[in-house]
Amino acid sequence: MNIPLADKIRPKSLDDIVGQRHILGEGRPLRRIIESGRIPNMIFYGGAGVGKTTVARLIAENAEMKLHKLNGTSASVADIREVIADTGSLDGINGVMLYLDEIQYLNKKQQQSLLEYIENGQITLIASTTENPYFYVYNAILSRSTVFEFKPVSPEELLPAINRAFRLTAEALGVGIELEEGVTEYISRGCGGDVRKSVNTAELCVLTSVGDGLARPVSETRSDGTGKPVPYTCVTLETAKELTQRSNMKYDRGGDQHYDILSALQKSIRGSDENAALHYAARLIEAGDLISICRRLLVIASEDIGLAYPQAVAIVKACVDSAVQLGLPEAVMPLSQAVVLLATAPKSNTAHMAMGRALQDVKNGVLGEIPRHLQNVHADGEGNAVKGQHYLYPHDYSNSYIKQQYLPDTLKDRGYYQYGNNKAEQAARAYWEKIK
Question: What's the DSSP call for residue 3?
Answer without folding.
Answer: P
